[in-house]
Amino acid sequence: MTALDPARRDADARASRHVLRELGFATNRAGDGLEGTAVVAPPLLVPGVPRLRTSVLFTWADTMGGLLAVRSFAPRVPVTLELDVHLRRPAPGDGTVRGVASVVKAGRSVFVFEAEFSSEEDEGFAVAAGSFMASPDPGVSMPTRIPPAQPPSDTLRVPLAERVGCVRRGPGESVLPRLEDGLNSSNTVNGGLIALAAEEAVLSLAPGTTLSSLALRYLQPVRVGPAVATAEVSDGFGRVRIRDAGSGDRLAVLATTRTFPGPPGRD
């Protein structure tokens, strides 16, 4: 057996303690696609609102899409280009959520997937779709097959934003630090956590609501951090810009959002 190179060992060690494993989403192969399940726990809910965070659904979709993209790009690392999640109704506040992801296009340069989420009482309450490209960085690599699913580690004990240090610095602004256990395979800030920063910036301007849609376009990775998200919201529609503050405030991600009208939970 060939010994793993130091970079690969470091990546494997980081994955074993990654904060995303604390979200409780366990994945398994399902034919040519993937399925995953998780129990909706209080730390995954929107602050003050008994509904699962849309950014958590975004992260679970990104996880499934990335695992599927490995088959197209290995040993190159899949990098998210864009991803969006749209909810038909507010997400559940408890019970089990199931996600099913399938391949739409598996090309040499671009990979596209779609996913659907359902709950125990609500079949198909959300859909997601996204695209990936192969990382141009030759210094990072992945296995040549989808790695076996790892069981979730200890589940979150505190709210997700608190766990990753994402704070609302003022109306329309949130700050997400670069954490060693919050990085992706390219050693940059995980895209799902960036989605959380976007969500927090919007919700700071729309308290008591939840997101009905969340779409991110990744322009470049957040390598240094912190990631600073600034949002503008009008008539339920939000525009967010996320910058890498430690890298000359370079624009890293563009995001758009919508919130559910009226009190959360009322269709």
Describe the structure.
This protein is an alpha+beta fold and 267 residues long. The chain has a single domain (6-259), classed as Porin (Beta Barrel). Helix content is 18%, strand content 35%. The chain starts with 5 loop residues before the first helix and ends in an 8-residue tail after the last strand.
Q: Trace the largest sheet across and list its strands.
A: 1-2-4-5-6-3-9-12-11-10-8-7
Structure summary, number of beta strands: 12
Number of domains: 1
Q: Which homologous superfamily in CATH is the superfamily?
A: Acyl-CoA thioesterase, double hotdog domain
Tell me the name of the CATH class: Mainly Beta
Class based on secondary structure composition and strand pairing: alpha+beta
The N- to C-terminal Cα distance equals 57 Å
Which bin fits the share of residues in helices?
A: 10-25%
Major sheet description: 12 strands, antiparallel
Looking at the overall shape, the CATH architecture is: Beta Barrel
Tell me the overall shape.
globular
